[in-house]
Every structure is written in structure tokens, then in C-alpha cells.
Amino acid sequence: DQQVKQNSPSLSVQEGRISILNCDYTNSMFDYFLWYKKYPAEGPTFLISISSIKDKNEDGRFTVFLNKSAKHLSLHIVPSQPGDSAVYFCAANVPGYALNFGKGTSLLVTP
Amino acid sequence: KAGVTQTPRYLIKTRGQQVTLSCSPISGHRSVSWYQQTPGQGLQFLFEYFSETQRNKGNFPGRFSGRQFSNSRSEMNVSTLELGDSALYLCASSLTSFRETQYFGPGTRLLVL
Asked: What pLDDT, in 10s, does the model give residues A59-98?
């Protein structure tokens, strides 16, 4: 039962433009959400997180938005750079239980 | 500061055997989490340890177990190995919780024949 869904397996964006990666979830008990980035042949890298008490968290070029009523979160990367090309995973957690991951979205930033 | 280290890096086992994987977190980090990565299922959370106590647990059978020592080093054990256990097992450490910046190790590639 996939509780966290990333419905776009891939996304292509031009350098300098905004990349928007989306994630939907079904469990209303999730209270913490995280984004990870993964390059081929490397382990994931933690990117940014957000608590359910907030609706936005920003870190440099990365901003995560949380819409609890829609059970939707998104990661915005502005401006996109070629080095951002990677697979992005969103994840969500209920304290004490599993950290649930989406299947990932492969982002390609073209020059 | 040394990163997260995992040993061994590669392992080949046969069905029915058991295996122990080791993870040494970054010095000062007290939270250690384990993940399984497979092509078919993506990244799946196994468990998280903090101060020698399992604090969060994923949806894996009881054949998967772990522990954390007083120096924060962690081990993961899989008993009665199955072919489907073939995967990359990743360990990550953070200061107090996986809900903050985690640092991943290179992983242990397990092949079950």
C-alpha cells in the first residue's frame, strides 16, 4: 500500500527555470515530510524537511510547500542548475513508525 | 570529520544463511537509521535507533533486526536469508533524529544466491 506517491517518474527543465516536484500522500497521521536527492551509484542525500505545523520551509534555492488539506507537498528548485539532475524522493513519517518513501522523480536540468 | 562507514561493502550469501551488517555513524551522531534499496521497491525504511533503543520501525518481517551499541555503532541482522533480500542496505546517521539532516554511508551490497 503506497502511502506516499510521486506520480511523475521524470521531469525535464531548462537551466535557470523553476523545477517543481510533486508528492501526494494518503495518511493524515503523517506529521513530518522530507525530501532526499540521489545521484547514480551514491547513497541518498537529505535535502530539506517540513513539519506538519508549517506550510513552507525554505533553504537556499530549495523550498518545500505543504498543503495538508490536499495531502500534497511540492519541492521547488529555483533557479535549476545542471548539478540538480538527480532522482528526488519524498518521504513522510508518523512518529514511531516507518519513514514512507515515494518511488522517486528523475529530474533532468538541461543547459 | 570521518563520514558514515559501513562494513562489509559487498557480501554474497546463500538462502537460509544469516548476515550481520555494521554501521559506524559520524562521531557525535546518536541516531542511526537503516534502509533497504531495491530496483523494484525503491528505498524502504527498516528501523531507527537512538541511544541503544529502537525508536521507529518499518514494515519488515521479524527476520530483520538491529541493535545499537553505547558508542552509537549499529548492526543489522537478517536471518534465514531469502532471494528477495538481495539489495543495497544503507545506513544513515544524524545528531538526534532522522527528521534532521542525515548523512548516508556507501551501503552494503548483499547478494543472496
From this structure: 999 999 999 999 999 999 999 999 999 999 999 988 878 7
Q: Is the peptide bond before B25 cis (omega within 30 degrees of 0)?
A: no
Interface test with A, best of B99, B101, B103, B108 (most A CBs within 10 A): B99
> pLDDT (tens digit, 9 = 90+) per residue, B37-52?
988 777 899 999 999 9
Q: Residue B74 half-sphere exposure, CB side, CA atoms within 13 Å? A: 36
Identify all chain A residues contacting B58, using CB atoms and an 8 Å cutoff: 97-99
Terminal-to-terminal C-alpha distance of chain B? 37
* B15 touches A74 (CB < 8 A): no
Q: Residue B1 above 70 pLDDT?
A: no
Identify all chain A residues contacting B99, using CB atoms and an 8 Å cutoff. 32, 34, 49, 93
Write out the three cell numbers for A8: 511523475
Specify the pLDDT at position B108. 96
For A34-69, the DSSP string reads: EEEEE-TTS--EEEEEEETT-SEEEETTEEEEEETT
Residue in the block written with cell 521531469: A11
Contact B104 A44 (CB under 8 A): yes
- DSSP letter assigned to residue B85: G
